[in-house]
Amino acid sequence: QAVKLLATFLSSKDNEEIVMVTLKEWLSDPQSQNNPTLLLVAGIIHLHRNELEEAAKALHAGTTLEMVSLQVQVYLRMARVDIAEKSLSLMSKMEDDATLTQLTT
Predict the structure, then answer these.
(1) For residues 63 and 91, what is the distance between their CA atoms, to the nearest angstrom?
(2) pTM of the full predicted structure?
(3) For residues 34, 99, 45 and 56, what is the CA-based torsion angle, rounded to 10 degrees?
(4) DSSP secondary-structure letter at 13?
């Protein structure tokens, strides 16, 4: 469902309000904090809207390489190189040889 929501968001600006209401509703559910796909999609959507603080909040748990990689992007956009480097270090500890880790480096 989260990926479908992202596709809806990216397909047309007309859907943006509906997507944001749906996303807010899903994220208010305590169970959503255990769903890395939903949190990643939330981070992507907020990043597209240039809502950097909201993107950082969605990604702060960083349980997957994809989430941590997106954290690095968010922190770099915020001009927080120090935090981006910490996130990159975390990625290296998680899986140093992963292609995504190498691309993020």
Answers:
(1) 10
(2) 0.89
(3) 60
(4) G
